[in-house]
Amino acid sequence: MNPPDLHALKLGDETAWNAAFDWLWPTVFAVAQLKLQPFLPDEVEDIAIEALEELVDNVRSVNSVEQLKPLVASIAHNRAVSLLRNRFAKKRGAGKTESLDLPADDRKAKEEPAPEDSPLDSLAKKELAARLQKSLVELKPPQGEILSDFFLQGLRYEEIAKKRGLAVGSVGVYLKRGLEAMRRIWERDENS
Amino acid sequence: MNNERFFDLAMKVIAHQAADVERAELDAMLGSQPELRAEFARLEKDARVAKDALPMMDAMEATAGEFPAYARERLQTKVRQTLGRPAAKQEPDRSVAWGRRWILGLTVATAVVLFVALPIFRAPDGPAIQVAMLDTVGTIRGADTNETGILKQQWKNSSFQSFDKTGPLENWETNWPEGNKVTAKVVYDRASGEVRVSLHGLEKPRQRTFVIERDLAATLQEANAFIQEQTKH
Hints:
The complex is a heterodimer.
Chain A: H1 6-10, H2 14-36, H3 44-58, H4 68-91, H5 104-111, H6 125-138, H7 143-152, H8 157-164, H9 168-186
Helix pairs in contact in A: 2-3, 2-4, 3-4, 4-6, 6-9, 7-9, 8-9
Chain B: H1 3-14, H2 20-32, H3 35-59, H4 69-83, H5 90-104, H6 106-120, E1 128-134, H7 143-154, E2 159-163, H8 166-174, E3 183-189, E4 194-200, E5 206-211, H9 216-231
Parallel strand pairs in B: 1-2, 1-3
Antiparallel strand pairs in B: 3-4, 4-5
């Protein structure tokens, strides 16, 4: 699937938007799923569609087609985070005084663990989009793959070395360079 | 100190892959070299960011999944409503309509204004305009100066500030002068290629974003026309 024509999108061209919806859907759905699947799986599709709607509002500020996926991913992420915060605040009865004699089921619901806040959650959508795009560009292969193997897949140095055809001693070097790149990108405006 | 060894041990501990002997070795390093504690804390933070950002980066490479057919019409309606008709074309129609109404009521309105309002009210001053530029990505030398000059040229007697971070800009954007004076804040956001105008002190606060389609100067003129239009009495 090819990226859509950004100029046609800005003009509201129906065919271009149909192509864009097909092209962006796997990304926007996957991002919504990341945040919501464990807690509110029924909301994943709605949030993904709402994120595409918000992209329509924002498309005129997009300068290149490469910005579309990071932007829609950021919108979906921030919408999912807001929804989670809302739901968990309500579940905990924000601003209400609760009886101590609640039925056991209600108490259980209120004790359910809330999703942890992520360092990404405080970023505005444009800032998050810019950093995601930068990360995709600046993480040189195989840094990103090795970071994923280690932090997401939980593979050990030896397993990564075997999987990637590297010396065991090189795995740490790639990990270090990858983390340094992430630090440069994600901590740049820490005090802003 | 063996930097590589420290890094490898730290990684294993952070990822819960360290054997007891490796954990003890790291503890010994942190005990004998307290400066490593700060680095260990930073690595923990980096790992947290990586764990959160990497899945989103993977999501941008995703290709599986089909856009649901039921959502297509809803989104195309949104496209038509948002992008289908350029906003600029609506303005003349509105002004013609208002013009007709104005002509119809001209005699009565003039009498009312001259007889009642004129002695009571003085014509208010124009809006105060505050201008700022946000440049989070860093500028090419020369481009910055040129754009600053264009901004200052457009609003010669206005205050001007430059920001390289969004936080201080957000504070600036929400910090309005006290009193009822009509004030306009204009923000030129270099990274997103847009100019935002916010108006305060009117009956209702107003905001509009202008995308830079041709050049900055032309967009600033559009923004200025919007300010004048909204604040004229």
